[in-house]
Amino acid sequence: MKLTAFVDGGGTKTRVRLVDHSVGAIVGEVVTGPANLGLGCKACWNQIGRAIDIVGLDLPARCVVGLAGTEYSEERQGFLASAPFPTILVSDRDAGLFGAHGGRPGGCLTVGTGVSFAWLDPRGIITRRGGFGFMLGDQGGGAWMGQRLLCGLIRLADRSDLQPSHISLIESLEIGASPTDWITFANQATPLEFGSLAPKVLNTESTISLSADIISEGVAELESLIREFPKVLPLALVGGLAHAYKNHLKMLGFDVVTADGNALDGLSYIDQHLSTLRIDRWKSND
Length: 286
Fold this sequence. Notes:
- By secondary structure, this protein is α/β, with parallel strands linked by helices.
- Helix 3 crosses helix 11 (263-273), helix 4 packs across helix 9 (209-225) and helix 9 (209-225) packs across helix 10.
- The radius of gyration is 20 Å and the shape is globular.
- The longest helix has 17 residues, at 142-158.
- The protein has helices at residues 41-55, 73-81, 92-101, 142-158, 164-173, 179-188, 191-195, 198-203, 209-225, 242-251, 263-273; strands spanning 3-9, 14-20, 25-32, 62-67, 87-91, 106-111, 115-120, 126-130, 234-238, 255-257, 282-283.
- It contains 11 helices and 11 strands.
- The strands form 2 sheets. The chain has a 6-stranded mixed β-sheet, with helices on both faces.
- It starts with a strand and ends with a strand.
- The protein has 2 domains: 3-92 and 262-283, Nucleotidyltransferase, domain 5 (2-Layer Sandwich), CATH 3.30.420; 103-259, Nucleotidyltransferase, domain 5.
């Protein structure tokens, strides 16, 4: 059995699909923890290796990987240098784009823990925006949403303006009841941990003005990110917060569609058409 591992790694989870090319069939698919190059190349390979172990089949003969954080050149080089089998690395946003539209023109806005955007025009040219990571970007994403929530709550607490609805929200966060607790959490929290607070914002959008304001701000940030995208092309939203923004972006005039496939499908497409695609790709020393 000659296996290829297709790997979609992001800030929240890693999906690994094993394909047996001798029969052209998917023989295993597993989800594990985050594999973002911002976490380090070792952490990424640990998640990939864990997924392959869970499937319990032969080691793959090769690996096609789409990771968040390919901008981290040192970690990218380390990832490829430590590859245990021949590996092709591309950006997770390109994987999502080709999965969403099967190689046809269109845009793919990924809104999960982080945020990135790419679109393919009718000439075959790819334009990319965002994807700068939590410290410098990802506005509108889950980590940003959680951080904005704590910023708002601590300001209200500082002015003694917390209402009963805020108190209930704070209790549901399970990170402590006082500003001192929130400061302690924020100073050590990862983007994934900030992102874990995002569902509380979504769940209280209709009852707490702070939450509604955060989502409105997120819509404005995403609109700014995609403002150059031609509205005549289809726009697919993917990621854990796609549902939260879908109707908002439709109301702004974008042709929001359901993605044809996911990033793993996109990696398969990229693997089949790599020689003709104008995308960044990096290879291990086989």
